[in-house]
Amino acid sequence: MDKGRILRIDPQDEPVWDALEGLRSSAVVTEARAYASERQARRERRRAYWASMLSFSPMRIAAAALCLAMIVVTGLWSYTPKVLELATHVGEIRTEQLADGSRVVLDTDTQIRVTFTGNTRHVRLVQGQAHFDVAHDASRPFKVAFGQGMVTAIGTSFDVTAFSNNKAVTLLGGRVMVEGPAKPSGNGDRAMLNPGQQVTLAPDGLLTPVRAVDLGSARAWQQGRIDLVDLPLSDALVQVNRYSTTKIVVQEPSLSHRRISGVFQAGDVNAVATALCVYFDLRVVRRTRESIVIAKHS
């Protein structure tokens, strides 16, 4: 007997089963009826199970909501980017290797925040100066934010400064794109740099024209040297004083725009003060742990 057809008959439909016994042997019909009864019982058990699972009692809804919340929170925690903060003290220059294999050299009194995900590599230079040797990864461009500007690289070597009076990018190897802040009308300024070039971000957010720089001078700070190249005295003092807790103060406003050049050991404020005294015919009028004050002879 075809069990497929028998299964469509209600096991409790006695007249139909009696009629079948007249056409087939009782043993066959009994077997088929038992088979159909078992199938119907299984269907009823499944129906009862799913009815129980889908019953929306307040307790069940609360339990489901709690499970969903735990899954969402766990997922968000797993994918929340971890921020690594690195900083140096005054007078300290330190090299660090990042998780992607890139290398960063932090200049004195410098702070950066590093955020890496599966798709992005992002660093913010909060203050100071840093050198980056970027590990090549075409799928994850390496971005460094400084002030309102942004540097984008894939595998290259460059310096970024974020001083209050000077925000600049200097390229030592490879290529980078530097962007100023976006304007209401669209994108901001952009500049592509080749090795030996530098661009500065002006206070108004515009990028200055790209200019050539001496790579030896650009690398000097990584060897603990201060290379002053034709700088106004006021800017030169900012550079020198970054490396020491003892600051040089020149009490002659008329000299602030006079330009100077020279190479000094980072942190050696005594040598700088002596050089300034000789060059400008000045003398030390007061010396403390916090400052060296120099002025003209009275």
Q: Any low-confidence stretches, pLDDT <50, length ≥5? A: 1-7
Beta strand count: 18
Please give the largest β-sheet: 13 strands, mixed
Q: Helix- and strand-based class? A: alpha+beta
- Taken from the alpha-carbon principal axes, the silhouette is elongated
- Cα radius of gyration in angstroms: 38 Å
Into which percent range does the helicity of residues fall? Answer: 25-40%
Number of helices: 7
Q: Which whole number gives the mean pLDDT? A: 85
Sequence of secondary-structure elements: HHHHEEEEEEEEEEEEEHEHEEHEE
Distance N to C terminus: 127 Å
Strand percent estimate: 25-35%
Oligomer: single chain
Please give a quick description of this structure.
With 298 residues, this protein is α+β, with helices and mostly antiparallel strands. Helix content is 30%, strand content 34%.
Can you give a write-up of this model?
The chain is built from 7 helices and 18 strands. It is elongated and about 130 Å long. A hairpin with a 5-residue loop joins β2 (94-97) and β3 (103-106). The protein starts with a helix and ends with a strand. Strands 1, 2, 3, 4, 5, 6, 7, 8, 9, 10, 11, 12 and 13 form a 13-stranded mixed sheet that branches. It has a 3-stranded mixed sheet with strand order 15-18-17. A two-stranded antiparallel ribbon has the order 14-16. The chain has helices spanning 3-6, 14-23, 26-53, 58-79, 215-219, 233-241, 269-280; strands at residues 83-87, 94-97, 103-106, 111-116, 121-133, 142-146, 149-153, 157-163, 166-173, 176-179, 190-193, 197-200, 211-212, 225-232, 247-250, 259-265, 282-287, 291-296. α2 runs antiparallel to α3 (26-53). The chain has 298 residues and is α+β, with helices and mostly antiparallel strands.
